[in-house]
TrEMBL record:
Residues 12-109 form the SnoaL-like domain. Gene3D superfamilies: 3.10.450.50. It holds the Pfam family SnoaL_2. SUPFAM superfamilies: NTF2-like. This is SnoaL-like domain-containing protein.
Length: 126
């Protein structure tokens, strides 16, 4: 896959979450996919990811923003940084993070998220 195709696949996955579009999200994934969220949960296979989507997309839960701020691609992998905000169970929150993704047969087979530990970035003044 070329850089543009990898980028588009990631953006399609993210847009699916913004739209709560289960089929769009699943269409980007390899059947044997593994997704690891930044705080630990691991989802193995499209069936489990589908159950996670159904659970997360309960009424009132919304991805308010998920913006990719940088994107770097290799042959069958990429790294991208992002800013995420959501409303979940009535609470609005967000954080900055980054993800590593690997691809197989033009689908995401592995996606691991990392979150910035601080509530927000700041300039260190020594």
């Amino acid at each position: 896959m070329n850089d543009l195709s990898l980028n588009q696949l990631i953006l399609t996955y993210i847009e699916g979450w913004k739209l709560k579009d289960r089929e769009q999200i699943l269409s980007t994934l390899d059947p044997a996919c593994v997704i690891i969220e930044s705080y630990g949960p691991t989802y193995r296979g499209k069936e489990m990811v589908g159950r996670w989507i159904d659970s997360w997309c309960a009424p009132g839960n919304i991805v308010d923003h998920w913006d990719v701020t940088s994107f770097f691609a290799g042959d069958e992998s990429c790294f991208f940084e992002w800013v995420f905000e959501c409303t979940y169970a009535g609470n609005r929150g967000g954080f900055e993070g980054a993800s590593i993704a690997r691809f197989s047969n033009d689908k995401i087979i592995y996606l691991r998220e990392y979150a910035m530990a601080a509530a927000s970035r700041y300039e260190w003044d020594g």
